[in-house]
Amino acid sequence: MSATGTAAVAQASVDLVDPHDCTDDPDKLATLEATHMALVRRGPDGRWRPALADRWTVSPDARTWTFELKPGVRCHDGAPADAEAVAWSVARMARPDMGATLGAPAVWAQYLAGARIEALSRSTVRIELDRPMADLPDVLGAGYVLSPGSDPDAPVGCGPYRIEDHVPGERLVLRAAPASAAVPAANPRLRFQRIACAAERAAALAAGTVQAATGLAGESARPLGAGPAVTVVEHLVPTAIIFLFNAARGPVRDARVRRALNLALNREDLVADVLGGAGRPLHGFVSPVHFGAAAATAGCDPDSAGRLLAEAGYGSGLELEVTCPTSLPDEAEALTAAVAAQLAPLGVSFRVERVEDRVDYANRVRLKRIGDLCVFDSSPMSTFRVLHEKIDSRVAGSWWQGYRNPEVEALVDRARATVGDAEREAIYRECHRLLQADPPWLYLYNHTRFAGLAGRHPDWRMRADGILDVAALPPV
């Protein structure tokens, strides 16, 4: 705890966004989860646990969900966080003007449109879907419950902390909510402070001007952890760094070419050369911490890659057009050059189109106006959402690029209707294996980052989704 009785958290950015925006930004999610609460929240392992909901049941066909709420919880304006507030909030997130993300509108509406949301009593809410969705918590985890009477431009939630002061883009000061919160606050006051530079965040933690810091780089974080005053943990960022294949036309429409390019890469070298070691190789469409991720089945095999290219008619060379942004990921240009260098011995070369405007870039990807490949990332922590929004040809979502695999799509349908977690996880593992054999993307890596906390906390870890859970933050 600082001298003022306030625990300070240093982040690269401090922004308050609409609670029903669709964001996977860890800084935005940390502040949202401090001030808001949904029916469910992720536990340390990334799996769903009760939050405002005390328990829930789902029908055998995965269409009807019934949630029993914790009693006595109130929003920060005093309004009850009851079934009426839940029903109103879920209906709000399902509106077509909500759930926007970069280049993609109404993300939540595609899952909740047509749902019947009903408060059966003050403490019971039922959601009836128009089709099975056994992974509904993957959506409702972003359905923060709001006070229906609060200002639409400044909606009030029921999280562990309430807003005391906010300077947009600079700091956010919070006070612990009353004891009626669904999840109690660990510290009486909390301040999120923007410090854009990772090295400066580490320096602030070392100096004691902040008590927690996220998004740290290894070169500044490791020395802190070696001493007695700070606990430092390394964690995986589950966002997948990839190249999307344009499977609608051109050479990578051929599954042999897509498979060959994946086999040709030495991902360990990419992590070393592009990230300075701050990452882990990615061998599938989701990270190793995602629900249903399977083990890698093949490593770097340039000989097999060459044979596949020859079978596809490209034994004498292949030029591919790559669409590349200059940010998000920030290393996109260096990554493209490194991938090109690894593929060159197979006679594969890149013709790169560079796009500086990142919003324009996202819109071009959404409109399928890319070359043979484009640099991209896949950020949802939900395996189901990645399959639905980016891989299923029947959905043809914003980031889908012409790929079609009927066997995977049949498994997605099975998973939708499979309410048992173990059985559904096995289905997703089979999807993972099939998408290793017939890849829709060029799989590259996940980043790794460091987080630090003042004091010695040997049991403290970052949550599996890479979000700082301030409600579980030890008193500091």
Automatic annotation (TrEMBL):
It comes from the Bacteria. InterPro entries: Peptide/Ni-bd, SBP_5, SBP_5_dom. SUPFAM superfamilies: Periplasmic binding protein-like II. One of its GO terms (molecular function) is peptide transmembrane transporter activity. GO terms for biological process: peptide transport. Residues 49-364 form the Solute-binding protein family domain. Its main location: periplasm. GO terms for cellular component: ATP-binding cassette (ABC) transporter complex; outer membrane-bounded periplasmic space. It is found in: Periplasm. Belongs to the bacterial solute-binding protein 5 family. This is ABC transporter substrate-binding protein.
